[in-house]
């Protein structure tokens, strides 16, 4: 079993149980006690858990879900969203992509477009595009957070050197009043700057985020052109707030 797969399983167990002993994790994952202890040490350094005597617990402070979990979470929903969002991609376009895992499924569709220029704060996005497409990739500078996200003053200043036809981005929550929320302030400052310099703003938001309010407001529905999702919200207030900006099928997009 790969290391990140173990982290994923350990994190899922702790979310289910809140705590677990080393012995319990060892039996569930069929690995040695030494391996579990090393994994817990690494996860604690990454700010995901707290080690306690004989095991581990989830951190009590709310934080963003780690990237190795986000990459697997709601993967089918994100693929469906990317399939719809891909209809907005055009040849000879300049595009901002934020660091969200929701943007990564768009890479295969970008490979089919010509003369694409991408500006991104995601090392993962830049690596995938570099190996799978002919797009010109401009990677923002800045400090590396969580192993692949570029943040900080240098990254914000880098955004100010560009203008884009489109911006694709995601969020941590979409409130019933149409407010777009994030858990991570370092991501918010980059995304806000991108929004100022993009003609068209496209939010990729899977249905697990509906009705959730987080700590940092990223944007309001009036700032966004499209909200592309895998489903229509059950909350009628959110449906009303989104109006005709909510897109769940390619048939709802204008013909190009």
Question: Describe it for me?
Answer:
The chain has a 7-stranded parallel beta sheet, sandwiched between helices. A 3-stranded antiparallel beta sheet has the order 1-3-2. It is of the alpha/beta class and 256 residues long. The relative contact order is 0.11. The chain has 10 helices and 15 strands. It folds into 2 domains: 59 residues, Orthogonal Bundle (Arc Repressor Mutant, subunit A); 184 residues, Rossmann fold (3-Layer(aba) Sandwich).
Number of strands: 15
Quaternary class: single chain
**Radius of gyration, whole Å:** 19 Å
Mean pLDDT reading: 89
* CATH topology category name of the largest domain: Rossmann fold
Summary?
This protein is α/β, with parallel strands linked by helices.
List keywords for this structure.
three-stranded antiparallel beta sheet, 22% strand, 256 residues, 10 helices, alpha/beta, Rossmann fold, Arc Repressor Mutant, subunit A, 2 domains, seven-stranded parallel beta sheet
Write the layout of secondary structure elements.
Blueprint: H1 3-17, E1 19-21, H2 22-29, H3 33-45, E2 49-52, E3 55-58, H4 67-70, H5 75-85, E4 94-97, H6 107-110, E5 117-120, H7 123-132, E6 136-139, E7 143-145, E8 149-151, H8 153-159, E9 164-169, E10 173-174, E11 180-182, H9 185-196, E12 198-204, E13 216-219, E14 226-228, H10 236-242, E15 246-247
Parallel strand pairs: 4-5, 4-9, 5-6, 9-12, 12-14, 14-15
Antiparallel strand pairs: 1-3, 2-3, 7-8, 10-11, 11-13
Helix pairs in contact: 2-3
């Amino acid at each position: 079993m790969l290391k990140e797969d173990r982290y994923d399983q350990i994190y899922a167990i702790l979310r289910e149980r809140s705590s677990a002993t080393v012995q319990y994790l060892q039996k569930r994952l069929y690995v040695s006690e030494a391996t579990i202890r090393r994994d817990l040490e690494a996860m604690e350094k990454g700010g995901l858990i707290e080690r306690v005597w004989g095991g581990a617990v989830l951190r009590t402070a709310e934080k963003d879900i780690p990237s190795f979990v986000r990459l697997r979470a709601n993967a089918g929903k994100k693929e469906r969203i990317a399939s719809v969002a891909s209809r907005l991609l055009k040849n000879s376009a300049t595009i901002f992509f934020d660091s969200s895992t929701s943007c990564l499924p768009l890479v295969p569709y970008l490979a089919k477009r010509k003369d694409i220029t991408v500006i991104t704060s995601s090392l993962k996005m830049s690596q995938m595009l570099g190996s799978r497409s002919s797009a010109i990739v401009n990677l923002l500078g800045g400090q590396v957070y969580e192993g692949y996200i570029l943040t900080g003053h240098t990254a914000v200043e880098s955004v100010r050197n560009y203008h884009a036809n489109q911006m694709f981005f995601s969020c941590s929550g979409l409130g019933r009043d149409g407010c777009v929320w994030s858990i991570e302030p370092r991501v918010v400052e980059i995304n806000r700057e991108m929004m100022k310099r993009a003609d068209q703003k496209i939010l990729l938001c899977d249905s697990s985020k509906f009705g959730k309010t987080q700590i940092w407001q990223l944007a309001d529905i009036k700032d966004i052109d499209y909200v592309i999702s895998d489903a229509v919200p059950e909350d009628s207030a959110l449906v009303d707030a989104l109006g005709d900006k909510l897109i769940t099928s390619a048939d709802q997009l204008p013909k190009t």
